Amino acid sequence: MADLIESGRNFYATKKYKRALVLFTKAMRSCPCARGVKRDRCMCKDFEKVAVQGGSIFREAMYTCHCDVGRIFSKCDNGYHIQALESRAATFEALGKLDHSMKDAEWILELAPRLPDGYLRVGKIAQLKEQDEYAWKMYTAGIEAHRERSVDSSPKLQQLYDAREPLHRRFFRQDPLSLPAELVTHIFSYLDWCEILLCLQVCKQWMRTLTSPVHGRLWRNMVFPSRGYYRTRSSCLGLLKKMLSWAGEGGFRRIVIPLGLDIIQAELTLLLKASPSLQHLVVSSLEDLSLSSKEKMWNQLRHVTIDEYDPSLHPTGEDIPGRFPYTFLQNAASSLEHLTFAGIPLQWYSSEPLMPRLPRLKSLHIGGWWDDQTPFPIFPLSIAFPQIEQLWVGPDVPNVDPGPAALWRDKWNGVWPHLKVLIIDASEAPGSKNVPNLGLQYLICLNRGNSLLHLLFMDMYPDLGDGTRDIFGNNNDTAPSSDVARYSEFRNLRSVRSNSGMCILPDRARTLLSNSIENRQLTSFDIVFPMPNLDISSLSTGDSRARYLKGYDWFCGTPSINTLGCYHLDFRLFPGNDNDLPLPQFLATFPNLRTLKIDTYNYHYSNDEHEFTSVILAIMSVTRLKTIYTRSFRHNSEALGTVRKAAQFKGVQIITIVYHGPEQWPVPLGS
């Protein structure tokens, strides 16, 4: 057989194709598998039809046979037999007889379905016949038939991968619902329920699969879209009932109703009563709605946010539309951990406020005042919510009333002993945004400040009229709160942020931060330079920005600091030396500083971005920053382009979109 094949190849090389065919045929028929008789090809197999139907080409080659060939002859992986058929198929190909060539290629596949040769030859001829998808399926079938072998175990197996590669991207289409159920759920979880509803229209199979119990998790987040998208009919009770059945036992786990959504009371009641496993509820407006108050069924509800209601209505034993949902919250007290609401009920300003008792509440975001004179008693709040760990007061800061000093000394030592995060947010306060300091000082200094990890002031502009007063008081204060501030310790502060608002004078900052710095806890701090209209002439360091920064010499080189904010910069234009522009050298002293948040006063209003550019370039040249946040460049300005180019070379990211609030609420505390 070897001599016949060799002779045939010689004739093939000289393009004597007919002589070559004769020799290849003789070699093929002399294989021992024929046992001295003529062996014909099995005509029962239809590989192309099987490929179109998505069946197994390997099984077709191995087992499909209804004629005598399969009964008389066995499979054959004789190398010479395969070479003879390969060579004959190549010869027919050279003669342009692709149909004859395909028959020999399929014969190879019939004889040896466990070898890659037949798959390669059939795929090649299919491509010549412009049947690329059939070729891709044939190559794929060959690869799957040898999936237990490594690619480098056979050169022809590697050829299968190489031949399939250019076709794979075009034809590797798969119904995603044929994937494992957990993977299907993960893929469709990136869509909201409105988008998944559209997917149900693809076909009946998709409808049955996506609404089956195995994919119930897809329907458990009922986050309604904005107004104008959801309301397309008079009532959606029927659709909601269907979706609740698809969500499975326990109903929805998350319900979010945005402001302006035209939802009726019957729909809201259905959503709540059919969702005993509800964990997260956001209702942006209760103006014409009420939460169910008769059932005590939500023992997994941990998050509640309510943005709009009428705080002038007194809470009672039954929640009515527009009223603070006292009873609903009380019924969820066994599990509720996070509560957000805007608008403090007027009744809470009384001497005997009716508040729900929430013993497991960990975070509270509360805001809204009646006026800046009416005192809001904070002590009853600590009785109703004794385990608060995170407190966000604002965006309207009420006139927090700590009560008489005697009450503080007698009862406040145990108030909120686990308070770790305090945010004081005056971003929507009216007028000058001056907020009352007295009660806020008490909040900051609870537990002598030792439980506090993160302290954030948002848009706070305390009255600095006497030159030395800030929210922490000063050494000349005689108010009871000054004792609290003076003798607090603050041993565990990790971040103190005041963004572009409150200026904490250097001596007060030292009192606030020194223990946390000594304990290597502090990682983030904001330095806010005094506004030009503020009189700080009494400071021994003088009234210039450079001398103000000099007051922070004690802070230089703090090893635990990785993030600093510098706001209201106003150094001398066109500095002649480091004394005129001390900020870069100041920042260079922090060995682990990686993030800088910086905004200017002078450069911004003088429209001289190039001066600010020189400041940023000087800072990057002496620090190892990774990220700089700034709003002091105009969008796509030439100066910003210069900074970005230099930053890219230094491996620094420039971010011009800055949000001064917490990135996430509740704040992740970590270890």
Structural notes for this entry:
Residues 229-233, 463-469, 475-483 and 534-543 have low confidence and may be disordered. It is elongated, with a radius of gyration of 38 Å. Among the domains are: 2-171, Serine Threonine Protein Phosphatase 5, Tetratricopeptide repeat, CATH 1.25.40.10; 530-671, Leucine-rich repeat, LRR (right-handed beta-alpha superhelix) (Alpha-Beta Horseshoe), CATH 3.80.10. 37% of the residues lie in helices and 11% in strands. Helix 9 (132-145) packs across helix 10 and helix 19 runs parallel beside helix 20 (480-486). Strand 2 (254-257), helix 15 and strand 3 form a beta-alpha-beta unit. With 671 residues, it is an alpha/beta fold. It comes from Claviceps purpurea (strain 20.1).
Strand and helix map with partners:
Blueprint (H helix, E strand, L loop, with lengths): L1 H12 L3 H13 L17 H7 L3 H7 L4 H5 L6 H16 L3 H14 L5 H12 L3 H14 L9 H17 L9 H8 L4 H7 L4 H7 L10 E3 L13 H11 L6 E4 L7 H9 L6 E4 L19 E4 L19 H6 L6 E5 L20 E5 L7 E3 L1 H6 L5 E4 L5 E3 L3 H7 L9 E5 L12 H7 L9 E5 L21 H7 L8 E3 L8 H13 L5 E5 L16 H6 L12 E7 L13 H6 L6 E6 L1 H4 L3 H14 L4 E3 L8 H13 L2 E3 L16
Parallel strand pairs: 1-2, 2-3, 3-4, 4-5, 5-6, 6-8, 7-9, 8-10, 10-11, 11-12, 12-13, 13-14, 14-15, 15-16, 16-17
Pfam families: F-box-like
Protein name: F-box domain-containing protein
Organism: Claviceps purpurea (strain 20.1)
